[in-house]
Design a protein that fits this description.
With 198 residues, the protein is an alpha/beta fold. The protein is built from 7 helices and 8 strands; from the N terminus they run H-E-E-E-H-H-E-H-H-E-H-E-H-E-E. The strands form 2 sheets. It has a 6-stranded mixed β-sheet with strand order 5-4-3-6-7-8, with helices on both faces. Strands 1-2 form a two-stranded antiparallel sheet. Helix 7 links the parallel strand 6 and strand 7. Helix 2 packs across helix 5. It is elongated and about 80 Å long.
């Protein structure tokens, strides 16, 4: 048996020198351009996010009755489990007229769930629900809702999904409706607008 070759620890691949005759002139020029350091005296261009004029600090002044509430798939399912009438419970929570809105993506998500969630589908097709058409590709409801809420600050988002709540909390001026102890609650909403104090 011959000697086994041992692999050298932290061995690096050999690099071709820039002065090597095998490298073409234009490749040498590219390598030199990469090495140039950025000038520290040059002005830095930064894009500052523009906040809409409807916000007063974290509070949204555009919100007011009738409230338009974007509904998520799991919000409908949990409302059925808690035996809550969606429109009536929303009105009990906000003491004002509420218009539940449902996007095409959420509707597609409920339809995909199959026969087990046919009650949720029947509730979603209620004439009291306002249907919002989607123009983007794909049917991932969370991204659709986040995008819609970011563009138009006139919505309240109703969801039970923790990940979606976490994403919405990063967007200022969007109240979140959720279910706790068999009733609807709302967070990040000014008390003057009829949100109950707890």
């Amino acid at each position: 048996m011959g000697k086994q070759k041992t692999k050298k620890f932290a061995a690096m691949k050999r690099m071709i020198n820039l002065k090597d005759h095998r490298i073409k002139e234009k490749d040498r020029a590219k390598a030199k351009e990469k090495k140039k350091k950025k000038d520290p005296a040059a002005l830095k261009e930064r894009e500052v996010t523009k906040y809409p004029s409807c916000l007063f600090f974290q509070y949204n002044t555009q919100l007011g009755p009738p409230y338009h509430i974007l509904v998520d798939t799991n919000f409908i399912n949990f409302s059925i489990k808690a035996k809550l009438d969606i429109v009536q419970s929303m009105m009990d929570c906000l003491y004002a007229k509420c218009v539940p809105c449902i996007t095409d993506c959420v509707m597609a998500e409920i339809e995909k769930l199959g026969m087990k969630y046919r009650v949720a589908l029947r509730i979603a097709k209620d004439p009291r629900f306002e249907r919002l058409p989607c123009t983007h590709k794909g049917t991932y409801a969370d991204d659709c809702l986040v995008q819609r809420v970011t563009q138009h600050k006139c919505y309240i988002l109703a969801t039970v999904d923790r990940d979606l709540k976490r994403r919405i909390r990063k967007i200022p001026g969007v109240p979140i409706m959720y279910i706790s102890s068999h009733r609807y609650n709302i967070e990040r909403m000014p008390d003057d607008y009829g949100a109950p104090r707890f």
